[in-house]
């Protein structure tokens, strides 16, 4: 979850690196640091707190005016947030920044202490420069020493390494994301493309076991075995401006308002309405007639998309679907094989638990299909097939447009599979395509009414607890609404399937508890009305989210937000938008750090 950036080129590195760190703030961090190679000497500065504190620390300091350097933002895993635990870490002439977790660091630290090495931090990272130094003391050349040291590490890492004695930068990765940006006579390292999108859009996405060496204006790639390798240079069609706020107060609000465009972009090139067909350029499904079960696995918001996928796939394809939280999936040795399909969903494509779930499925011979947003990500590269959501960069930690585009992709995949299985004819697909094509305009209609949701937020912003209820596809929507409120406002919120309310949560309901109920007029309508009555009987403060202006509960509830109508399978794409806005406006009114909520990071790249 930490952020790594590096630069080698003709320009002054410090300002480039600090600007890049600012663009990685969405990943979450508690401290920041920088190392600059300057005429045969490396200067290091580290600060607890924000990047701007680090910028002030080195401002106008000639020691930090070099054209090669590394910088880092840390999210604490081993060792409390502090200056001494901040990166970069140093041993003699070697300086390292690291993302990931070194699982055998205690064993390595004990060994290195016996050799006389002195450790100055509580981190797992510090063993890396000391290992490299230990190898170099045995007359192993610098690059070979890195290879030797990295081969001794157990766990995950993305590292940037510089050496005081020569102008060279080295990068390597295993199970943590790291990319190389290619400019005009200059090179960049980054954990994520938005860090340097203002400088270049040409990237090499390093794979596990890759090592990149930057020296004498040249880049060479090799494996940890020392053998030369070749990786493609990919052009990312995002721009630096796409990763800026564009006049919005927060990235999250900008990304909520980008959803009409994001859903539209996700559809482009995949639907042929006149022919009644849906297809994907990225991949072609294998023979799916033999599939006996579909698994959908993800974390957080993406897991809620999986839950919706289960509803709509089982109802329309009549294939059993099992959903799993990725962090639990592989630890129960799931029973799966070559007759199953494993669908893995992740905005970043770098979620550690989801990657581990994919590898577990592949080990068992299961066909793996990833749905993600980032070109060149680990899930995109390693899965048997990939569908990109085309949502554009999502910077806010609380995911919004990723969710609606993931559901859009699942719906398109449903149509594609329905065609291939002979369940849906061209006329049916044509009608369903017509429904999803209307969604961008319908989302925009909700956004145009955002002022009413902001007023709703003012009404409820002082409440300490919320309950969210929904049925069918809108139970996962309720989970997502509660998650958004918890993430960014720090207000306690829980979501339940409405029918489960009387199995416990009803005990919480009184005149102080807002109960957000998602109740479109669909097959769950009457049952949900009964649940609303149960809340009202106990004087709960019902906030109704519906697509029915004549909903029978409107005269009885405290507040109402209406959304446009659509078919059952697509309801969450519309009903979730006012829930996102409600969470945003409450958090904004409370003055929390909306884009970087406490204790959270955008991409959870460690277990």
Overview of this protein structure:
With 607 residues, the chain is of the alpha/beta class. It is 34% helix and 23% strand. The protein contains 18 helices and 26 strands. An eight-stranded antiparallel sheet has the order 3-2-4-1-10-9-11-14, with helices on one face. α16 links the parallel β22 (465-470) and β23 (492-497). The chain is globular and about 80 Å long. 54% of the residues are buried. The model has no long low-confidence stretch (mean pLDDT 92).
Give a short summary of the structure.
With 607 residues, the protein is α/β, with parallel strands linked by helices. 34% of the residues lie in helices and 23% in strands. It contains 18 helices and 26 strands.
- Count of DSSP E strands? 26
| Uncertain residue segments | none
Tell the overall outline: globular
Oligomer: single chain
Mean pLDDT over all positions: 92
| Major sheet details | 8 strands, antiparallel
Helical content (DSSP H or I, runs of 4+): 25-40%
Strand content: 15-25%
Strand order of the largest sheet: 3-2-4-1-10-9-11-14
Specify the structural class: alpha/beta
CA gyration radius, whole angstroms: 25 Å
The CA-CA distance between the termini, in Å, is 10 Å
Question: How is this fold's topology laid out?
Answer:
Elements (H helix, E strand, L loop, with lengths): L2 E6 L4 H11 L7 E7 L4 E7 L2 H8 L9 E7 L14 E3 L2 E6 L5 H10 L12 H10 L5 H10 L5 E7 L2 E9 L4 E4 L4 E4 L11 E4 L4 E6 L2 E6 L10 E2 L15 H7 L1 H9 L3 E2 L4 E2 L14 E6 L1 H18 L3 E5 H4 L10 E7 L5 H12 L3 E6 L5 H5 L2 E4 L12 H20 L5 H12 L1 H10 L1 H11 L4 E6 L3 H16 L2 E6 L16 E5 L6 H13 L3 E6 L12 E4 L8 H20 L17
Parallel strand pairs: 17-18, 17-19, 19-20, 20-21, 22-23, 22-24, 24-25, 25-26
Antiparallel strand pairs: 1-4, 1-10, 2-3, 2-4, 5-6, 6-7, 7-8, 8-12, 9-10, 9-11, 11-14, 12-13, 15-16
